[in-house]
Amino acid sequence: MGKVYEGIDDRLRDFILAQPVFFVATAPSGAGGHVSLSPKGGTGTLAVLGRHRVAYLDYTGSGAETIAHLRDNGRITLMACAFRGPPKILRLYGCGRPVLPGDAGFAELLASFPGDPGRGLRAIIDVEVERVSDACGYQVPLMEYAGDRDLLVRWTDRKSDEELAEYRRTRNDRSIDGLPAVPETFVQPDVPQGGDVLDGTAG
């Protein structure tokens, strides 16, 4: 039987941060539109900020559904599951907001993450968690973690600031349902190019 928790305690925090991948689900308002489900990964890209608050680094990618949906209604669910060790699925239901470079609080949130996030950083997704619950995870397969991919880091490092801005303007400005996503006035984060950067999955 699943259990509902009062918040993210130390044991749940350790479980969340130990998983190399987590999943994010959002949807537009109303009966129509497309539900988005995105895998997110990369060491150090997820932070537990309190018993009822988490945040993760959102990287430039081919879509911007999560940002668009959060701007529309704020609804979000994060899921982590154990691919090794005892079976467990944990879901965090809440209300999220995209915090973009240049927004108030961006630098403070960024300081919650270790290391240099890299030039591909597009936003920080800040989530107020309203419900924490688990499930058995008996059908989740056992798999071994081989490491983080560095493809997104290398892709962004090959592009100039102008090329990244153009990519966001033409590929990240709206969701597939036409909802506004990354604004044209996006401010490129002031982070070094190359070096020891985090890796993430965007969408």
Number of strands: 8
Class computed from helices, strands and strand pairing: alpha+beta
Global Rg: 17 Å
**CATH level 1 name:** Mainly Beta
Terminal Cα separation, in Å?
32 Å
Number of domains: 1
Helix percentage:
10-25%
Architecture (CATH level 2) name? Roll
Q: Give me the CATH fold name.
A: Pnp Oxidase, Chain A
Overall average residue pLDDT? 92
Oligomer: single chain
- Flag low-confidence runs: 192-197
Question: How would you portray this structure in words?
Answer:
This protein is an alpha+beta fold and 203 residues long. It has a single domain (4-171), classed as Pnp Oxidase, Chain A (Roll). Helices cover 20% and strands 29% of the residues. The chain is built from five helices and eight strands. Strands 1, 2, 3, 4, 5, 6, 7 and 8 form an eight-stranded antiparallel beta sheet that branches. Strand 6 (75-81) and strand 7 (89-99) form a beta hairpin. The longest helix is centred in the C-terminal third of the chain and has 11 residues, at 161-171. It is globular. The relative contact order is 0.25. The model is unreliable at 192-197 (pLDDT under 50).
Fold blueprint:
Blueprint: E1 4-5, H1 10-18, E2 21-26, E3 36-41, E4 46-50, E5 53-59, H2 65-72, E6 75-81, E7 89-99, H3 106-110, E8 121-135, H4 151-157, H5 161-171
Antiparallel strand pairs: 1-8, 2-3, 2-6, 4-5, 5-8, 6-7, 7-8
Descriptive keywords:
29% strand; 203 residues; Pnp Oxidase, Chain A; 8-stranded antiparallel sheet; alpha+beta; 8 strands
